[in-house]
TrEMBL record:
GO terms for molecular function: ATP binding; DNA binding; DNA helicase activity. Residues 314-357 form the UvrD-like helicase C-terminal domain. InterPro entries: DNA_helicase_UvrD/REP, P-loop_NTPase, UvrD-like_helicase_C. This is UvrD-like helicase C-terminal domain-containing protein. Gene3D superfamilies: P-loop containing nucleotide triphosphate hydrolases.
Amino acid sequence: MRGEIVDAGWWTKSEQLDPQQAHIVNKVGVDDSFLVTGGPGSGKTNILLLRAQYLYLKRFKNIVVLTVGRSLTEFIRTGIAVKQVLEIDHISTHRQWSIDLIRQNRPHRLSEATEGDFRQSSRRCAEILSEVAAELGPERYQAILVDEVQDLGGEELDFMRKITPRLILAGDGNQQLQAGKGIASAMGLGLQQFTLPFHYRIGHAICTVADRIRPPVPPAESLLATCRYDEDALPSSAKLFPCASIDAQLEKLVAAIRRQLKAYPNELIGVLVPSNNDVQRVKECLSGCEFANVVGYHESGRDGDRSFTANQRVCVVTIDSAKGLEFRATHLMFVEKLRTARPEKLFTAVTRAKTSLSAYSTGSVPPLLDAAFAEPAEPTLEDLF
């Protein structure tokens, strides 16, 4: 897996940081704990990793960077391998880190911690770890940095606070995928807070769709109003394609990928699907295409491959697993299955796109998505009859 990833552009150069971003990276006190909030594309993950590198170079070697999803963890690990900053072992999913700590400190409860579905297992892990916090002590880690913190709960964050003097969090409440948790848990810790007001990677057309899914309050804080994307350099687009069948959706997808592999050389293309079963459906289609050797499938299960290989240009992944990832072009498949999806999930899905967003449906479209992609029209009286 450890080849050079296509488009590791999320590793910003120092001259590309705005003044506030630069301040957070290396001007905030080295012993400070804090929370960074901001919308998609505002640089949260980049800042978190640069702060981790800063602490590492300050000789804080016992640090860990945690994410909620395994796909994002692998993406970060790949960037670290390319840039040769930190060590791969410093990056982990929150779940794997929790299980490893239980294995080390409560091995007789390991099977209990891993029973049930993800939510049940997470709850048990939090309960077990709360019992060992005092044993681990307040400096078990010199620093813990957490991305996508909106999907962790208060008990999980309280545990981290007890075992490190430096807790650094980043998140966005609009991208909360786990019901019952949220950014409020992080804010409740009383940490110093920084809000990133601008974003840099999402085009205007995509901002418009996202703002319709999660209307901002106040309007001045909309993605479109706070956008610093260079629309002149790469004009953006966002379109919904009604299709007669699933096969027709896949045909459109194949044709679009062919074009985009040429239009966006050395950049990632994302294919987002509602469920793990849908990953397999797309795989059946794309495996026979001439570009099959540059497609990666982020499959389910502990043994499922979530890596980003050197030649990977197309990533097929569930919406939940795509959180934190970004793609020059994003294809949102089978949206008719998203009727019961929470607005935060839909917002997360569409904001994975930088320049091109395409959604495909067969049958009725969820009203929220239908409205988000709707183009202005002037119906006549005759159109009503």
